[in-house]
């Protein structure tokens, strides 16, 4: 009896050793998952598919490295159980990696996450200068972001006071001009981007639709009140020196010429060489409601509401000529041009991608389909190979632009939203791991 008991105790001890070894294997995998998640986010700065591939490589490859190099398990061809090696700790590895990477990304890459929860984005208008994005962010006020790395944007500063609802922004010569919903323009000193300083405030009686600045003059489109010209040579004390009647929605000033879109009358070209007595040189009546304009050389691109886009040749200032139009089913409110492509913002309806290589016959690249961002696309800008979208409550959205005339699926496939590694990749990862575990169990049965 004694010998039998001894044999049973030895067997129990051996079994416990095996269990202990399996538990160690499990916890080493969990620890490796935590470390690799930290490295992926903080050191390698991986996002999107690269992060997914990195995780899968560790998930499928590391267990075998661990079994041979750390635990030094002997390899016996007939007895080698690769499925058991792969399966042990796979759930713990996946959960730990996803949890650590998500928390790390939230706390480190987006350090203002707590402020974002209590003050969600309200992005209306943007301007990009160098690597900086200047944002009129509604009730969040004036926000400045560094987008040197588009996937890891850095908050430089923000200016927020009670009652401020930022709607429009223009930056020139280290001075920021911010229009709010209270019909006023706030002038900021931006010589230090980490600390914007309010210099002055100029009040109007109507809402401000657009701002353009050249030299010491600011041109302010104020809807039904027309165009106001401010002397801002002393930013702390701006004063109006000129005015043009009309219903002005947008203004761009080049040299001594102001290009205006009038809600009802189309395009106006104005000589502002004498700001106190601006002279309208020409007017071109166009269909639709003029909302926004962009100028490339002497070609003017106009977002015309339900009439889509108009293209105008202004090489002869007193006789502009309509070259072509794009009729959209959406309501175009903002436009930006990049090479032979134009991008039309249609608010809640999304963005139109237009090929303008033939100015007389602009064509929708996406066969009249719209690219829908998560939020309402209020404003657009170009940063390197990205289309930057002021996306309302969803903040800033970046869309990668691979080619001027990319196919629709290529445009959609390369879209890069605000959160590079989030629910999308979590769902894909979960499905992949679940399928892998299910396949292993089926083979075992």
Automatic annotation (TrEMBL):
Presence of the UniProt keyword tRNA processing in the record: no
Pfam families (UniProt xref): LVIVD
Keywords carried by this UniProt record: Membrane, Transmembrane, Transmembrane helix
Ranges annotated as spanning the membrane: 25-44, 50-71, 92-113, 421-440
Record has Transmembrane helix as a keyword: yes
Any coiled-coil regions, as ranges: none
Domain of life: Archaea
Family matches, as InterPro entries: LVIVD (IPR013211), WD40/YVTN_repeat-like_dom_sf (IPR015943)
Name assigned to this protein: LVIVD repeat protein
């Amino acid at each position: 009896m004694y010998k039998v008991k001894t044999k049973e105790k030895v067997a129990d001890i051996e079994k416990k050793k095996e269990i202990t070894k399996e538990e160690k294997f499990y916890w080493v995998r969990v620890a490796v998952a935590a470390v690799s998640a930290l490295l992926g986010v903080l050191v390698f700065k991986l996002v999107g598919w690269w992060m997914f591939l990195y995780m899968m490589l560790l998930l499928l490859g590391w267990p075998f490295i661990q079994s041979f190099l750390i635990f030094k398990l002997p390899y016996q061809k007939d007895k080698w159980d690769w499925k058991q090696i792969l399966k042990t700790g796979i759930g713990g590895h996946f959960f730990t990696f996803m949890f650590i990477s998500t928390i790390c990304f939230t706390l480190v890459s987006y350090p203002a996450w707590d402020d974002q929860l209590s003050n969600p984005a309200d992005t209306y208008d943007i301007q990009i200068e160098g690597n900086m994005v200047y944002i009129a962010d509604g009730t969040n006020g004036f926000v400045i972001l560094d987008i040197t790395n588009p996937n890891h944007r850095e908050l430089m500063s923000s200016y927020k006071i009670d009652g401020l609802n930022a709607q429009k922004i223009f930056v020139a010569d280290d001075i920021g001009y911010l229009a709010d919903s209270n019909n006023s323009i706030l002038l900021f000193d931006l010589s230090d981007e980490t600390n914007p300083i309010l210099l002055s405030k100029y009040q109007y009686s109507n809402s401000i639709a657009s701002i353009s600045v050249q030299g010491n003059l600011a041109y302010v489109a104020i809807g039904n009140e027309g165009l106001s010209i401010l002397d801002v040579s002393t930013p702390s004390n701006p004063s109006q020196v000129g005015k043009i009647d009309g219903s002005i929605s947008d203004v761009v000033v080049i040299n001594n010429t102001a290009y205006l879109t009038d809600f009802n009358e189309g395009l106006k070209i104005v000589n502002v060489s004498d700001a106190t007595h601006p002279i309208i040189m020409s007017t071109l009546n166009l269909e639709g409601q003029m909302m926004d304009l962009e100028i490339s050389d002497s070609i003017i691109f106009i977002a015309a509401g339900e009439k889509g886009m108009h293209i105008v040749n202004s090489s002869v200032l007193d006789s502009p000529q309509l070259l072509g139009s794009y009729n959209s089913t959406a309501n175009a409110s903002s436009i930006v041009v990049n090479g032979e492509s134009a991008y039309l913002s249609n608010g809640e309806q999304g963005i139109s991608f237009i090929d303008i290589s033939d100015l007389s016959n602009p064509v929708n690249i996406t066969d009249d389909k719209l690219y829908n961002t998560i939020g309402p696309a209020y404003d657009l800008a170009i940063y390197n190979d990205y289309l930057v979208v002021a996306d309302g409550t969803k903040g800033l959205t970046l869309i990668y632009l691979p080619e001027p005339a990319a196919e629709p699926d290529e445009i959609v496939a390369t879209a890069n939203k605000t959160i590079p590694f989030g629910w999308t990749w979590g769902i894909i990862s979960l499905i992949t791991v679940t399928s892998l575990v299910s396949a292993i169990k089926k083979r075992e049965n």
